[in-house]
Write a structure and sequence with these properties.
The mean pLDDT is 85. 61% of the residues lie in helices and 15% in strands. The protein has 6 helices and 5 strands, in the order H-E-H-E-H-E-H-E-E-H-H. It folds into 2 domains: 123 residues, 2-Layer Sandwich (Alpha-Beta Plaits), CATH 3.30.70; 48 residues. Strands 2-3-1-4-5 form a 5-stranded antiparallel sheet, sandwiched between helices. Helix 1 crosses helix 3 and helix 4 packs across helix 5.
């Protein structure tokens, strides 16, 4: 029978994994305290969390949640980045690995599917949600901006023409 501590860790881990739409696992083997603090801070900045959980407990939780073929992901010491924005978490993992030369992404769970390390790398190259919203707004606003520019040009042309007529009449009157 599992210890009470392991049961509590299991429940907490299951709650976190269930409530997250994305869980990215990264290699935690060569981390020092400063690295652990840095990855937690970066995950927090994007609305996520970083959790170190025993692989045996993570494996049981993932199997109980219906995920298969997670053995390759859960090798060695692993930290789980959990949150709602898969792209942002993948970017955190990729940027950290690039900057520190450690902490490579091992894979993860995104929207109910097990993904590989290559998939995490692909996700990290996508634009973030905020960037996509900005691009969408720009696409929607571009035709409106053009329409306003055309209308502004017509009004400006009318104003110039009226001013020219006014100046002509003032010269004729003088």
């Amino acid at each position: 029978m599992p210890s009470i501590l392991n049961q509590l860790i299991y429940k907490e881990t299951r709650n976190v994994f269930e409530s997250s739409t994305a869980v990215i696992f990264i290699d935690y083997q060569s981390f020092v305290q400063a690295d652990a603090v840095a990855i937690r801070d970066e995950a927090t900045k994007v609305g996520g969390t970083a959790r170190v959980v025993k692989n045996s407990i993570s494996s049981i939780v993932l199997k109980d949640l219906g995920y298969e073929a997670t053995e390759a992901i859960l090798k060695g010491q692993v930290v789980a980045l959990c949150g709602e924005d898969a792209v942002a978490l993948a970017k955190v993992a990729a940027d950290f690995a690039k900057k520190n030369k450690k902490g490579e992404a091992l894979g993860g769970i995104v929207d109910g599917a097990v993904i590989s390390a290559a998939d995490v790398a692909t996700l990290s190259k996508l634009p973030s949600k905020d960037q996509l919203v900005g691009m969408f707004v720009n696409v929607v606003a571009a035709p409106l901006r053009g329409f306003v520019t055309v209308l502004n040009g017509n009004i400006k042309g009318l104003a110039v023409a009226l001013n020219a007529i006014k100046e002509k009449k003032e010269k004729e009157a003088a």
